[in-house]
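Troubleshooting: if your tokenizer reports a length mismatch, compare your output against this known-good record of 180 residues.
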Amino acid sequence: MNIPNSLTILRILLIPVFVGFMTYRQYGYALAALLCAGLTDALDGLVARLTNQQTKLGEILDPLADKLLLTSAFLTLSILHLVPSWVVILVVSRDLILMLGTVVAHVTNIAIDITPTILGKGTTLCQLTYVVLVIAMIWRGMKIGALFPLLLVMVAFTLGSGLHYLYRGYRRTYLNGSVG
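Known-good structure output:
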């Protein structure tokens, strides 16, 4: 256990705090918890690189923490009727399909490249920006309809990156001869 992994675990522990604040409609505190979790995300990667403390656990835990945080945020926003249910279905389905593909590849000993792509990082940025802005606008009593263009961009990135990851896995597995 090192500092970067400890920061990642702190991010995971902030998820129920964030969800609790959202559930009780304490949007300012929820936003603070979410931003604190985002800060730990930035810090864990920076500390890991600067101190050469990158670990296998961190490679698994960091993206898992991101997925858990975003999934929890979207589910909570949907339950509170702040975002459409179809958005949550899209976001969660994409992540579940990608995780399932990774597990299947691991179990079948198929080597796949799980490094994040620019599209994948863009998707995370769009999703996080959307969630932060929805909560900030709700907290300030503003109408979230103004975020519709960002919602469309986020949906496009989510679909595009999901399809890109699937294509990349297919290409690596079937077109490069990993399965015969």
